[in-house]
Amino acid sequence: MRSPPRLSxxxxxxxxxxxxxxxxxxxxxxxxxxxxxxxxxxxAQELQDFRKDVTSMLQxxxxxxxxxxxxxRDNITEMKTQVNNIKVATDTLNKDQISMKAKISDxxxxxxxxxxxxxxxxxxxxxxRNNMAFSTTMSTSDENxxxxxxxxxxxxxx
Length: 158
Fold this sequence. Notes:
Region (Disordered): 1-38
Strand content: under 5%
Distance between the termini: 184 Å
Shape: rod-shaped
Helix content: over 70%
Protein name: (apollo) hypothetical protein
Largest sheet: none
Structural class: mainly alpha
Number of strands: 0
Coiled coil: 104-131
Mean pLDDT: 81
Keywords: Coiled coil
Low-confidence stretches: none
Organism: Parnassius apollo (Apollo butterfly)
């Protein structure tokens, strides 16, 4: 259901005039309230002073933050240098440790070889001593036999 044309109270096109209404009654403008200048307050100056104070405070804060950031940046750079120095020292210590392990292994191998040589020399020494003792006892018994023979010969002569 549509309402018949022009029987409703609203006009869709406000730019055209209507016989019943004049354009002056249809188009209105609202005016905003304007501050009265008759007041003796110095708001504009106070606002400007407040703006200067806030700007000054922000500038000081910015300067402080920049100084802090520069300090932190310098400390981080110094820490990176120290970490790199520690890495170099650690690498050097690792190389030295590997070298020492190789030397200790070589010394251990040589010590084991020396122990084996000592044991074989000791065994050979024991064998030689046993042979010397046997030959000493033999030579003593040989001397006894020779002496006894000489005594017999001397007895026969007498």
